[in-house]
Input
Amino acid sequence: MRKRASRTAFTLIELLVVIAIIAILIALLVPAVQKVRESAARTQCQNNLKQMGLAQHGYHDANKRFPPGYAASGTYVDGATDTSPGWGWAAFILPYIEQTPVYRRIDLSQPIQTSPAIQTMLALCVCPSDIAPTAPFAVPDGFGNTICLAAPTSYAACCGSDAADTRDATGDGVFFRNSQIRIADIVDGTSQTFLIGERAWANANGAWAGAIPSGVIRRGTSNPCQPNMAGAWYPSSTLALAHAHLNNAMVDPDGSAGMDDFSSMHFGGSFFAFADGSVHFIRSVPGDNTDGSYTADCLNFQALGTRAGREVVAGDFIN
Output
């Protein structure tokens, strides 16, 4: 008689060992995959800023000046209710980032909220690491009433140091209300001066179109900052601008919850486009000293925000 072949099978212990090995491999692979994804996102974000920086130079070559931080036709009052028409720096460089069709739909003399073009989602304006909507979001006024829908952005133009508030009529940086700064005006040197930096939409809900009249920028759901006073929103001009006081703020003494500061969803800092066209990663500046004075990193950061402050920036601060 032919012998029946015996069947082999896993024992329970062998099965548990295999499961444990698979779990260990997954535990090792997931962080590696996440690291690769973040590396790719950082590269894309850096490229976004590189293109926007070059576009700023393209605009400068054509107009002999950089575009305004935002354009306002009336007399300055408060940088909140007086920003009309409000078109910001990103709207002016649209032809230089291959968005001429969007630009042609805009009437720069009319208020932002009257143009459907502001709802156009621009991939270049969103960092892949950011937690931003995939469709236009509701921009409210200070009472929570929706003014319009607008496409998000992960970037803001620099109006200057902590002394330059986003609400001010002028600033000590390159961009502010009706600014017309030329390269010749950047006394500190183009390699030592910010043009544009990251401000995560997850921290502050900015719009690429500009300073929507009577609109406000709201605190993002991932914003970690603890203001000294409750900060749920900040004035209209902040939709387009930020100042170089803090980077990834954790505590903000002006009560803005870091909405008027730069930030990112990258670990350890944020990317910035400089006036010479270069892009650098600047480490986080989470807060001031406990006595209210500026830290050394904060002073370096503010120095990069000004165009003619004649400050000296530590050599290891720019990566």
Summary: Residues 12-63 form the longest helix (52 residues). The CA atoms of residues 231 and 304 lie 26 Å apart. The mean pLDDT is 93.
